[in-house]
Amino acid sequence: MNFPYLTRFQPVLLSLFRFITGLLLFQYGVAKLFKFPAVPMFAKVELMSLYGAAGTLELVLGGLLMIGLFSRLAAFILSGEMAFAYFMGHMFRGESPVFLPLLNGGTSAILFCFACLYLSAAGAGPISVDAAMGNERESTGGAFARR
Length: 147
Known about the structure:
Layout lengths: L9 H25 L15 H18 L3 H21 L9 H4 L2 H16 L6 H5 L14
Helix pairs in contact: 1-2, 1-5, 2-3, 3-5
């Protein structure tokens, strides 16, 4: 089944997807660094720890994703951070590895990893600082578009 009338919304939906992904990652950074909202899991996070480094990346790069500035680079770095978070924080948390995301709680880390990987290839979309500066010539073409 094909819905050709929906394709006209693809560029704007890419910008919305980028913004929401950045906003969700930004909220994790705020929770880890500023303890707001108070999440028990992040209650004892120190700035000079892996959680502190992750929170800093999520706060700064999530903010860049929200406004659409240096989106491809920010998304690529966040994709790597989420892959690292999955393996270190979920899969190999106990004595033996737990491979299934439903069992190790890593579903959101995997989803963020591949959402950011997609954004690093697709770009920021037309509603972004990158597009306003002329860094995004084709809003949905990404890395493999003909220029």
